[in-house]
Design goal:
InterPro entries: FAD-bd, FAD/NAD-bd_sf, RIFMO-like. 37% of the residues lie in helices and 25% in strands. It is an alpha/beta fold. The chain folds into two domains: 224 residues, FAD/NAD(P)-binding domain (3-Layer(bba) Sandwich), CATH 3.50.50.60; 117 residues, D-Amino Acid Oxidase, subunit A, domain 2 (D-Amino Acid Oxidase, Chain A, domain 2, 2-Layer Sandwich), CATH 3.30.9. The protein is globular. The structure holds 8-demethyl-8-dimethylamino-flavin-adenine-dinucleotide (RFL). The site of 8-demethyl-8-dimethylamino-flavin-adenine-dinucleotide has 35 residues, from helix 1, strand 16 and helix 7.
């Protein structure tokens, strides 16, 4: 049983299906909702492109190449960082929504996989010595499914992690103290994706298709949508980008994202395994949340196949131990990106000392081949 048909749940189901392992996905939303909302991630990193290539799905699921450059703009002055690596290890453009759409098509329409949409009251029963069960309700009434294993892919507010008894999990949290206003707009990135440092706060512009892009603007945790009418957004974008020539365009969506890091571990309890946002959150500054979810389910799918096909449960037993060291590395990278891009900007956040040392860290990316190489490995997901 897989709970949640986001990127993690659908990828896991697709991989298991390909290996001949039966599974059912339960999703509280309907298919149309999944296909039209959740415009979040934009790039599948190189590590995960290689994963989809390995299972022969890259061409079906992913779109074309993505810029291997980042404009680390400081007070309006551009510096173009070239992500180091060969052509064979590049990330690919693919919005999260596009990936979910393609996974739904491949899993359900091409492979005949089973996703039960619009379910409610999902409960997880995972007692020692009995086979796990998942109960849920849909328009046909109440159901109960007995299974071998449960994958909790229902993100931070789902039922899977919440079903684990108190005292089993340790939770480590870090709040960064500010938020982002994420705005989807009807104008493309011209040139390179921008991560912008400015005295007025952080700004980014990242590609989201040939006609659209997403701007991120640092804002206060207490802000709300009403504080950011469209005109204020465009005025701040121009000010923080240091580019008066940017024109207003249509704003499609505004979302507030408090920046925080969270890890719940171990990522397993008896026969329940957590993957993706159900187990960990990273601030979107490093663009790694979806990519970490993909690493989890790659590891979990291989471990489940081994357990069910070869009756070897060793990889399942060490699932959490396999994920966590790499996860902490990417938590550190995401925190580095977040601290550096925000401390280097508005000195009222963390003071002038932190502003200058963060700017020195940014300079290092351009002055040191060693720093540039490590940064590139994290950007590619191959560190
Ligand atoms: P999802 O995608 O949220 O899917 C969870 C699914 O579970 C369902 N669900 C339930 N189903 C049944 N019963 C229940 N009780 C249920 N409760 C929940 C939900 O309806 C949903 O369909 O989690 P998953 O699969 O773990 O995937 C994680 C990613 O979605 C997340 O990490 C990324 O979006 C993070 N993220 C980014 N990641 C990147 O790799 N690169 C990026 O550039 C990037 N940008 C972002 C982001 C996240 C953002 N926000 C909104 C937090 C930008 C933003 C603004």
């Amino acid at each position: 049983m897989i709970i949640g048909a986001g990127v993690a749940g659908l990828t896991l189901a697709t991989f298991l299906h390909r290996s001949g392992v039966e599974c059912v996905v339960l999703e509280r939303r309907d298919r149309a909702y999944l296909q039209t909302v959740r415009q979040r991630a934009g790039v599948v990193d190189a590590r995960n492109v290689q994963m989809f290539e390995r299972v022969g799905l890259a061409e079906k699921l992913l779109a074309g190449p993505v810029a291997q450059t980042i404009d680390y703009r400081t007070d309006g002055i551009s510096r173009i960082f070239n992500i180091i690596g060969d052509d064979a290890s590049e990330g690919r453009f693919c919005t999260q929504q596009m990936l979910v759409n393609n996974l739904l098509r491949v899993l359900i329409d091409e492979m005949g996989g089973e996703v039960r949409f619009e379910v409610s009251d999902v409960t997880v029963h995972n007692e020692e010595g009995t086979e796990p069960q998942v109960r849920y309700t849909d328009s046909n009434g109440a159901h109960e499914i007995t299974c071998d294993y449960i994958a909790g892919c229902d993100a931070d507010r789902g039922v899977s992690r919440a079903s684990i008894p108190d005292g089993v999990l340790t939770t480590v949290t870090h709040e960064f103290g500010y938020a982002w206003l994420a705005v989807l707009v009807e104008s493309p990135v011209k040139g390179h994706p921008v991560m912008g440092v400015s005295e007025h706060g952080f700004v980014a512009q990242l590609p989201r298709g040939p006609q659209r892009s997403r701007y991120y603007l640092q804002c206060s945790l207490t802000d709300g949508v009403a504080d950011w009418p469209d005109q204020r957004i465009w005025d701040e974008v121009r000010r923080r980008m240091g580019d008066a020539s940017i024109e207003n365009s249509i704003v499609h969506e505004k979302v507030f994202v408090p920046l925080r890091s969270v890890v719940h571990f171990p990522m397993q309890h008896r026969r329940l395994f957590l993957a993706g946002d159900a187990a960990h959150l990273v601030p979107p500054t490093g663009a790694k949340g979806m990519n970490l979810a993909l690493f989890d389910v790659d590891t979990l799918a291989q471990a489940l196949v081994k357990a069910l096909r070869e009756h070897d449960c060793s990889a399942l037993a060490s699932y959490s131990d396999t994920i966590l060291p790499r996860l902490w590395g990417y938590q550190a990278f995401s925190a580095w990106m977040t601290d550096t891009m925000h401390d280097a900007g508005d000195p009222s956040i963390n003071g002038n000392f932190r502003q200058m040392t963060a700017r020195a860290r940014l300079d290092e990316l351009f002055n040191s081949e060693t720093a540039a190489r490590l940064h590139s490995e994290y950007q590619r997901g191959t560190a």
